[in-house]
Design brief:
This protein is mostly beta strands and 455 residues long. It has helices spanning 2-18, 300-303, 377-380, and strands at 78-91, 128-140, 149-159, 182-183, 186-199, 202-210, 238-247, 252-261, 270-281, 285-296, 305-319, 324-339, 345-360, 365-375, 393-406, 409-420, 443-454. The protein has a single domain, classed as Porin, CATH 2.40.160.10.
Length: 455
Amino acid sequence: MKKNLLGCFGVIAMLVVLQFTQTETHAGLFDNIKPCDEVSECNLGECNPCDNLCDDIAVTDCDPCGEIDACNKKKSKWFVTGYLEAGFFANEYGAKGLYNYNVATRPRRHFNPDSGNTKYLQNLDKTGGQLNQLYISAGKSVDGKHGLDIGGTVDFTFGTDARFAQSAGLEYNAGHGLDSWGTGDYYSAFAQAYFEAAYKKWNVKIGKVATPFGSNGYKSTERFFYSLSDTFAMGPATALAAYATYTVNDKLSVYAGWAQPDQFGETSNDNALLAGFNWQVGKRLHVAYALAVGENDRYKAATNFYNEYFVQSLVATYKINRKWTYIFDWSLYNTNDKNDIAKTQNNSGIYGINTELIYQYNSKWAFGFRAGWGKDINNYLNANPNSILSTDNKYLFSLGANWTPRQWLTIKSELRYDKFEDATAFNNLDDVGNWRADGGKTDQFSGGVSAIVKF
């Protein structure tokens, strides 16, 4: 295992050295900026991206051409895009992925979440090489500026990460505890599948959507680090939803509607209000807030128990200057289990902070530091029953580098450290899946390298 870790660190060191040997290219962390060498022969007028190239504006405003591409040709609203991420990730204990977890209820080689790198890394199942995400998106974009416009999007994903994009009632049946679209390492899911309509300042989406919670979404192309932050576990990744967004002005948009978090109509007894806003506060600061407030009374008739939940996240992105970007993420998931007859209740949940500081060294290289804190994560994710505490503080630190030698290729490298204040949450299982007598470890180093190829 030490050889694996040394190999990972060697690759990271090699990538850092390579930055001084490569020629300049126009691609970087925020590659939606049109490179000047692609448009020098085009007559773009005010649309020239070489003018004040994101020097004093937020990253989200860095598409200076709007509906016009680099050569003044109108963009088609129909699209088919995608990417593939594959990589290698390892932990210091050499813990590998184990299967046939809970054979009585999950007989089809189900992954054991207490083995390998998973649970506290969220998007990585096991030690070793893996195809994390094959992601294909197709559909028709909408623009209501000139009247009613109708479209939609269907996103399909396959890989070790895809189980996090699955929904009860679509890819699996929660009542049977089976992941019907996958087994072992690899799973499939429709990450999104929604109808969309736009009219002037209004936009409506109906179907399975990626939720707006936290700073880390499912898609690896939309986050800096290879692994996910702990706050990813503090909100639903997808939802069946019907909601409307109203664009107040070019700085502020608000949205609200109905949602069923992490499911696709499996039961009609789980309903929530989904609401939030996106606010561009000046040129450098962007603030996004999202909440879901709901009740799940699926088993109320039979057991008299029902569940009330409250999910929220506040994400602030501050572009310090052309080089530096800071991200602050506060997320919370709270539940209140009630007994309708005994009038008893049990409150539980998780909450935490994720912060990231990204430095865009040049158009090819970016470096990042991440620090996070979470409360009650060990209890929520149901770790080792021999753990010292069921509620616990957890800390996370990551160093990462992104190298983008071409617009279609990004290499991510990361060194990560996770630490529980007391709970023994790592290296819990032996090679055959039994709990270790010593109860495992309270901390763990891990790291890896992945490649993202866009097409």
